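GrpB family protein: C-alpha cells wanted.
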Amino acid sequence: MNRTICIGPYDPSWATRFQSAADELLHLLGTQVLAIHHIGSTAVPGLVAKPTIDLLMEVRDLDALALYRSGFETLGYVWRGENGISGRCYFQRGKSTRTHHLHAYVAGHPEVARHLRFRDYLLAHPEAVEQYSRAKFEARAASAGVAAAYQQHKSAVVESIAASALRWSQANSRDCRPSN
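Answer:
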C-alpha cells in the first residue's frame, strides 16, 4: 500500500507537539536519553511540510531501548528496527496517518550531525527554505502524492541543500584559536 503525501504550510503548533512527545520520551527513558532534537521540515518555520513530527533522540545505549519496547508501544510507537539505516533504531507513531517519526542513535553517530546540520542550515538560510518548499510542491504534483515517487522527485534538491549545509558547517567550525 502506497502512502499519499499531503503537505501544507508551516504550523506553529508543531513545536508544541514536538515538546510534548519529547517530554513523554524523557519520562519513559530517563537517563538513557542524552538529547532529543526536533528535526525535519516541521522544525523549520516557514517550510512547507507533512504534518509529521520528526524527533532525533541521542541515547547512551541503542540496544537498551529494547528494554522499553512495551513503553514505546504504550505511547503509540511502532518499533521498526534499523529500517534501512545501520546504527539507528526507528519508530513510527500513528497508523494510517503517521504523526511522529522517531530516529534514535547512540550519541556521536554521524547521522546525528547530518540531520542537525541540514536543519540548522535551513534555519539560517531563508532562500534554501524557499527552494526546498518549491521542490516539495513540484514533487507532490509530479508524484501525485505517492510517497516513494515524492521522495525521488525532491531528492536532487535535498542532496544539493545537504551539500551546501556541509560546506556551511565546515566554514563555520573553523579553528578560531589565535595564532602565535
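The radius of gyration is 17 Å. The first helix runs from residue 13 to 29.

Cheers.
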